[in-house]
Specification:
The chain is of the alpha/beta class and 222 residues long. The protein has seven helices and nine strands, in the order E-E-H-E-H-E-H-E-E-H-E-H-E-H-E-H. Helix 6 links the parallel strand 8 and strand 9.
Length: 222
């Protein structure tokens, strides 16, 4: 495909559920394809089904239908597609607030500076504990004054929690960096995770997936 084209799994307008933007109306562009296969993935259709080829101009036109919404590019893994960076650039040029959710295994350096990045660090429970270490240097550079990159750990066990806690201790982060602990529901009960955080005085934020609370039965488009 040309760099002006992307393979899209779905487009939907919903509530942002997993970042400092949680609770806000958001237009989601879920791109097709992923380089990882996490055990708890709730969007397998984004890499098992067929995607629709769409031009960046078409996606910008769709964004204009929701002029006050933030726009999030998610997946799958968006950065596996060459057209993701031109799309992010075009949305910023259109004056939109743009979020990118990425699994952390690929370099984020090519992402335009003003994109808000939700950067996963995959824990052992994912089955894919892969992280691009260069992303830590990029985070430190971009978050020197503003928290444009947010770290998210999806947790399914005590082991995952300890991994997240120790990761943040081994890698000092700028004070502006939001850190989110997102438990896999119903695998990891919220009271257990809260107790561990309080015991360790872990300065992160417990953040259940808001959209799964609002629409617990929805399989997609949430």
């Amino acid at each position: 495909m040309a760099k002006t084209e992307l393979l899209v799994s779905e487009l939907f307008y919903s509530i942002q559920g997993e970042s400092s933007f949680a609770g806000l109306p958001c237009l989601f562009f879920r791109l097709h394809g992923c380089n990882l296969r996490c055990r708890y993935c709730d969007s397998r259709y984004s890499f098992t089904g067929e995607g629709q080829v769409m031009d960046i101009a078409d996606l910008l036109a769709r964004a204009k239908q929701y002029p006050r919404a933030i726009v999030e590019i998610t997946g799958g893994e968006p950065l596996t597609q060459a057209g993701a960076i031109p799309l992010l650039t075009a949305l910023l040029a259109a004056g939109r607030t743009v979020l990118l959710e990425t699994n952390g295994s690929l370099p984020i350096a090519p992402v335009p500076e003003m994109v808000h990045i939700i950067l996963d660090v995959k824990c052992p429970g994912s089955g894919n504990p892969i992280f691009c270490q260069d992303n830590l240097a990029e985070l430190a550079r971009r978050n020197h004054e503003r928290g444009l990159i947010e770290l998210k750990f999806v947790l399914s066990s005590r082991e995952d929690y300890l991994f997240a806690r120790d990761f943040t201790r081994r890698h000092p982060l700028p004070a502006t960096t939001p850190i989110w602990l997102s438990p896999v529901s119903p695998v990891l009960p919220l009271p257990e995770l809260a107790a561990w955080m309080l015991e360790d005085e872990f300065a992160a934020r417990l953040h259940p997936q808001l959209h799964t609370i609002i629409w617990p039965q929805a399989a997609r488009g949430r």
